[in-house]
Specification:
Elements (H helix, E strand, L loop, with lengths): L2 H15 L16 E9 L10 E6 L19 E7 L4 E7 L22 E3 L5 E2 L4 E2 L5 E9 L10 E6 L4 E6 L5 E6 L4 E6 L6 E2 L17 E8 L3
Parallel strand pairs: 1-6, 1-7, 8-14
Antiparallel strand pairs: 1-3, 2-4, 4-5, 8-11, 9-10, 9-12, 12-13
């Protein structure tokens, strides 16, 4: 496994297992040795994207423990990010899944046209005008998980997405309402569901018979998943 893929794996697993926290003192003061990055998030037409969450991935060191609170862009698409001055390069991306912009730091959600700026941070330093320019939005896969007998929503289910090219996987637990929403690149995905007390479920295309789903750009696919009790 290359150093990049290893660090990416460590970061991704850490992110899945660790809730976002603000690693600051009791008064929420920014540590003096942290860095500050400001800029705008713009769509493919150059228009500001409000309500986008900014994520940072250090490219040359692994992450452990809590991560700094992620900023959200304002109505002008601007953001102000205070974060540790990680050694080497740090890559930024903008996330707004309901608008078709996934967290492309995760390999499963990456597209060839992704444009994520990489910056060098210095303790106490400031970087201004670091704009994140998004490509065309991806399609959206949205749905609910229900009991096949009662129709009630199934809580505490786990959904897993698998992509063969490039080889990557994403897995997360869903909330009590059984709802999920993902912005996905137009690449074949294997989708499976597991929940306590139910038989495992796997998506199967009703036309092709393949265990793959492809969500095209600008498509909003709604599916209802019914789990059969054991």
């Amino acid at each position: 496994m290359s150093n990049y893929k290893y660090l990416h794996f460590v970061w991704f697993v850490t992110l899945l297992m660790t809730p976002l926290t603000l690693a600051q003192g009791p008064s929420n003061e920014i540590p003096r040795d942290w860095a500050t990055v400001t800029g705008h998030v713009l769509d493919s037409d150059g228009k500001p994207v409000a309500g986008a969450t900014i994520s940072a991935l250090p490219m040359d060191v692994g992450l452990s423990g809590g991560t700094p609170r992620r900023p959200v862009t304002d109505q002008d698409g601007s953001y102000h990010y205070s974060l540790p001055a990680y050694p080497g390069k740090t890559r930024l991306c903008a996330i707004k899944e309901k608008a078709g912009y996934p967290d492309t730091q995760g390999l499963l959600f990456a597209s060839p046209g992704d444009n994520m700026p990489e910056v060098s941070l210095t303790p106490g330093g400031h970087l201004d005008n670091v704009d994140i320019r998004l490509g065309p939005p991806d399609g959206i896969l949205e749905g609910f998980i229900a009991d096949a007998v009662s129709g009630a929503k199934v809580p505490n289910a786990r959904i897993t997405l698998h992509r063969s090219e490039p080889e990557s996987m994403y897995s997360t637990s869903l909330g009590p309402d059984g709802h999920f929403l993902f912005a996905l690149p137009p690449s074949p995905m294997d989708v499976s569901i597991e929940a306590p007390g139910y038989k495992p479920w796997r998506y199967k295309d009703s036309i092709t018979g393949l265990y793959k789903i492809v969500v095209l750009n600008d498509e909003h696919r709604d599916i209802r998943i019914e789990l059969v009790p054991k």
